[in-house]
Amino acid sequence: MHPEHSEEAGVAVDDVWRHFGPVPALAGISLTAPYGKVTALVGPNGAGKTTLLLILASLLLPDRGTVRVGGADPATDPYGVRAAMGWMPDTFGVYDQLTVKEYLTFFADSYRLPRSTVPARVDELLTLIHLADYAYQPVHVLSRGQKQRLALARALIHRPRVLLLDEPASGLDPRSRVELRDVLRGLAADGAAVLVSSHILTELEEIADRVVLVARGRTAGEHTMSELAGAAKVGYRVRAIDGEALTAFLAERGVEPVAVGHAGSELPAMAEAEAADLLAGMVGAGVRVVAFEPLGSNLESIYLALTEERR
Amino acid sequence: MTTPSGIWLVARQEFRMRLRTGRWKWLLGGWLVLLAVFTGLLDLSVSTGYGYVDDDQSRRGVPIFGILMFFVLGMVMVISPALTSQAINGDRERGTLATLQVTRLRPGEIALGKLLAGWGVGLVMLALSLPFAGLATAKGGITVARLAAVYGVVALLIGVVCAVSQALSALLARSITSALLSYLTVAFLCVGTLISFALIAPLVADERTVQTPEGYAYTDTRSREDRVWWLLAPNPFVILADSAPRVPPRLVDYGDAYYYDDYDPLSSIGREVRELRRPPSDGDYDPNQADVPPVWPWGLGFNVLLGIGSVVLTTRRLRTPSRTLARGVRIA
Description:
Chain A is of the alpha/beta class. Chain A has helices spanning 49-56, 78-84, 100-110, 118-128, 144-156, 174-189, 201-207, 225-231, 243-253, 272-284, 298-310, and strands at residues 9-20, 23-34, 38-42, 64-69, 85-88, 162-166, 193-198, 210-215, 218-224, 234-240, 259-261, 264-270, 289-294.
């Protein structure tokens, strides 16, 4: 999309196609994931997210198109890409027979980290993912969430500048998700380019700086989080102590409630600025408002619009 | 660059995991018991004079060693496919291969490291048979050179079977299929070669019409095994027998005649296979005729090439980024 930026972005993808038999998994997708930012890759199942991540992880060749990961082309310089990139697949196995520490040490060796630095790096990561207490436990005793964190540590072992995560939040409890968010925000703050695919939209809203929307193997939009928050229209629910004053005010403003119930009136979708003006007017007119809240997340409404378009 | 340190890293890791998974103590213990029982019975049965009789007590070890080594070869041929026939697709099924492929390890390092680990387990089993071969050696007639040569050949053959099985596991998506095909490959080498030789040898025999002085004509077939001897060459048992350094034959009194015999199952099979290479002659048997060249270099060469080809194939299948995805991998 912005080829001139490809040198400075952690991930730059331009017009990438990939077929599996007659089925196009990617149909000219383009996106960038800059350093220092968390970029979310959002789209319905079958949109091509995993295929794209496999290509970025230097495991799969695209049919055509240009790809840069950490400044290298995975097709011609996979080892250059691998030195700079960490990848966490959506489904993965671990070596059940090893202890947590042995597992990470093996991958540190596989990435050819200098021998003397390995123990310190492994301990550092075990602390980061809160598994230091499990260092000498066999991997098979870990819970699903703990294994997920171990896989994240594996992807981080060689301090990659580009981090690719395929559905990292799936199957995590809320506590682990918050920790994941903190780890990813910390990596981005240290200058890494983080690309996260997911359909857990509310999670990405807190994690990501930027959102790339994909549908049918193509980019459907590339936005910053703040852009989206401003542009997206969502419904609002409002409740006032004096219901009649509220109804009168809304009628005066020409806003027709979608539904009126015990919890308050549901207002039709509007942009953030619109909603803010309406609330200010309400308060100014003396309506005693006790609740004014958006219905659903911005990302969710965009996502739903996107999937509706697909049908 | 495929480096020894990378190969060693993968091999150590695989070996460690194998040690922690299986019930190795029981398996190896069972193997030792089996060898002990077999060698003990063999020693007793050879002493009865039912089969290989050698009056020369200083060479008692020769038949024991030969039969024991056939047994050991047969057993490791059965075990070896299991060591590597799920090495690659098993990792794919468990989802641990791709995470290894995105490290800086090269495909050759992964392929050779995994092969070394499987081969290593096979060599441990082979090494456990050494005390029993030593027992046979102690009975006399076996030189250290013979022992070393025979063990070297068996060790190589284990490696070949492991390499072929691993290549099948890299080619096929399902580990059940690759295990089955590995066993079929071994069965072809051990039994299929014999069957194809037996079926094809009659087809290449010469048919000629002989005119008798009385005016009658009849057709005579003359076997021409020298055209198809190579069908037997890849057989591991043939290779083992023919490559074993010969025991010098002794002149034995059979009562009504004297024969040369060495009481060695390895040498006698080796001699018979070599005789297949001799073109037929119309003349009488000539005791001074030239020796026929050995068969085993062809067989061992074939097998070693098969092994090397398998490693190359495995390495190619492990190379990424790949054009195709392994079947069963979710797309999109």
